[in-house]
Amino acid sequence: MLNFPLDKKKKHVTKCHVTHGKMSHLDPKQIPIKKKPFSAILRHKFIQRIELVIPEELYVTIEEKFFTKHHTSPNYCRVIIPLLALLERDFFNEYIKKGLSSIFVVPFLFPSSPLFFTDSVCFLVGNILMLSEGRIGAENVYLLKDGKLSLHLDKQSYESAGLVGKPENDKAERYLKNRWLVEIDLRCPSMQHGKKGFDRIVYAFENVLKNPVTWLFCDLGSSNLVSDPLDKHFPVKKTAIPQVTRDVIVQIPSLKPPIATDPEFNTDFYYYAMELHEWFSLVMLDSPRINKDDEIDPVLSRYSPPGQTSVARLVKVVWRGFIPPPWIHRLFVEVFLATPREQWFTINVCGFPETVLGESKDSMILKPANKSREYVLWETI
């Protein structure tokens, strides 16, 4: 393999950080959020795809709990509105300002499960996620999370809007791509109709950033409002229904991490993490290179699964849509607690593209088959 020199001037180089550790005892009522691997899931702003890879025998065990009518899939909607609609009194007060004072208790994902707790997760009423269409770095894109509105603008739109922002790119690239980022905390006490700073934002949305755009909208509270401010914009409601692929017969390598006491642990773990990440990537791409009966001319492909392999039957479950990170956080804990210690599973979380090249933040977590609470985490940033 050729080793091309790294361009040190480019700071936005995709990197993959690998963490190998053990989790402490998991209390479903007090799930960790700051420790890995849980923090790796919650650090995502917006998630478009979840991939769960499990052995066939494990799927048979947990199918009734997770993939039947009792399972609550994440809901979201697609709506076409201008930026100004976010500042309308009904929408602004219900979905943004109310998040400061009210708390809504969300039930557990699987009400029929013995692990059901009504006091497990709390979300703020009015806490919503919104993402507009477009490519960051090439078009004007708007994001709303935790009451903070981020506007990714080109130079002309930024100067015409008259809002205070900062360069989106590094100083070395500022003159190559004139992109600007404006961040507005709509939950700030000064953000009220009639205030001078707020009226400046309204003016920019009325006269400059006035074109309607397509948004993905997700209400984390999932509150049933008598009069939903979004209904007058005729949103298209959607549900991220899991797609199950069974009878995937593959050649699987050893998933057991190397022992830390070995003298060659650093080298062994480096190749273990690299080769296993590549193998799981091929599983999620439905590549025939890992199939049991794969035969291909070595001129076209020289890939083979690493180390000693065995034949296994896998099941792949995929969710696609506009999925909130807290939902995936809870799903991971549910699957982990329901999985016997002698079984393994992998969950892969893919975010939306965050650069003009389509790069996104991904996280993959492997729970190996052993009696300890080991995990291996790959974070692509």
Automatic annotation (TrEMBL):
What cellular component terms from Gene Ontology apply here?
multimeric ribonuclease P complex; ribonuclease MRP complex
Classification via InterPro entries:
RNase_P_Rpp40
Protein's GO biological process = endonucleolytic cleavage in ITS1 to separate SSU-rRNA from 5.8S rRNA and LSU-rRNA from tricistronic rRNA transcript (SSU-rRNA, 5.8S rRNA, LSU-rRNA); tRNA 5'-leader removal
Q: Report which superkingdom the organism of origin falls in.
A: Eukaryota
| Molecular function in Gene Ontology | ribonuclease MRP activity; ribonuclease P activity
Q: Which residues form the signal peptide?
A: none
Its protein name is Putative ribonuclease p 40kda subunit
> What is the species listed in this Swiss-Prot or TrEMBL entry?
Golovinomyces cichoracearum
**UniProt lineage:** Eukaryota, Fungi, Dikarya, Ascomycota, Pezizomycotina
